[in-house]
Amino acid sequence: MKQLEIPLLTARQIEVRVAQIGKKGDGLSLLLYKDARTDMEVLDAIFGPMGWQRHHSRDNANCTISVWDDEKGQWVDKEDVGTESNTEAQKGLASDSFKRAGVNWGIGRELYTAPYIWIKNGQNCTIQNDNGRFKCYDKFEVLEIGYNEHREITRLVIANAKTKNVVYQYGTGARQASKAVESKPKETPDQPAKPAEKPISGGSTMADVGTLATEEQKEYIRKNASDEEYMDIMQEYGAELENLPYNDALFRIKEIDRNNSDQMPKCTRCGKIVTGWALPDGTTMTASEIIGKSKISYGAVYCGPCCVALKKEARKREAKKNEAS
Q: What are the helix (H) ranges across the chain?
């Protein structure tokens, strides 16, 4: 299968919903997401209407999207699990698992790079107090979306769908909206025929689903995330963070560290805020792990890079001592 060019979602294809309303009713957070129809649109455009299929299992909890690989002459599978919606549980579960399986094919994966979106009550939205419970019936829409070469969101403009007033802006770069997808041309007769049904074989690429977050990552998020951050993650990935991918957990931990920077301790050596850090060998440590280990090893708080520097300095001193002896 040739390298796929999954198109970045356009502003038209991105939906916006209220993720959480502040405890005091002073504002709310918004979440970007995609509709299942968007996945169908992209799959039709990239693989052709007859070039992909979906299968559900475990009472719609799991969805497998299969696409036809002409080079291998077989279906290639990517699977993921969904969570029930508040209304029409089974239908919502099927839709959610389908959208998550689509992310494994790269559809809408860029939405995970969206910034934390918080808008204040008043001119930007109307939050009502219903016997102590805050509610907001406003709808929101994406006006502009821009990306960089790494498929990360660099510009975002959101408006109140009713008033058309811009309520949120992110990034200063020029608009760089992706082009609308174009339909894939019909197959020619000389292309290999495809089986009517998905073959039952061991050719599934379940490894492509991706590694889930570690227990250490989940525990760090539970302990350090604010109520708003935790609810955003829970609503996006499901109860108890069980569906949170490893790389997304790293991103969320960095966001939590950044948001809690005033409360996080600073490195004794360089004075910078201690945050999560990736070691040269590819392994990662959370801020709390670095703080704990640095206190044990050096008796004070040091950031990851400074811990490495201290270790190198200790090795040099040891080497000089050995040479002198």
A: 36-47, 89-104, 215-224, 227-237, 246-259, 287-298, 304-324
3-state secondary structure 37-66: HHHHHHHHHHHCCCCEEEEEECCCCEEEEE
The confidence band for 111, taking pLDDT boundaries of 50, 70 and 90, is very high
- Going by C-alpha positions, the residue among 243, 221, 219 that lies closest to residue 231 is 221
Confidence of residue 90 (pLDDT cuts 50, 70, 90): low
Candidates 172, 168, 146, 171; CA nearest to 157 is 168
Sequence-separated (6 or more) residues with CB below 8 Å from residue 322: none
The span from the CA of 8 to the CA of 109, in Å, is 9
- Buried b / exposed e over 180-197, threshold 16 CB at 10 Å, is ebeeeeeeeeeeeebeee
Which stretch of DSSP H or E encloses residue 120?
strand 117-120
Share of the chain above pLDDT 90, in %: 20
Residue with tokens 């802006």: 169
pLDDT at 262 over 90: no
In this structure, what DSSP letter does residue 26 have?
Answer: S
pLDDT at position 132: 82
Mean pLDDT of 39-59: 89
- Residue 200 and residue 178: Cα distance in Å, rounded? 37
Pairwise CA distance, residues 252 & 229, whole Å: 9
Report d(CA 114, CA 108) in Å as an integer.
11
Best-predicted range by mean pLDDT (231-240, 257-266, 301-310): 301-310
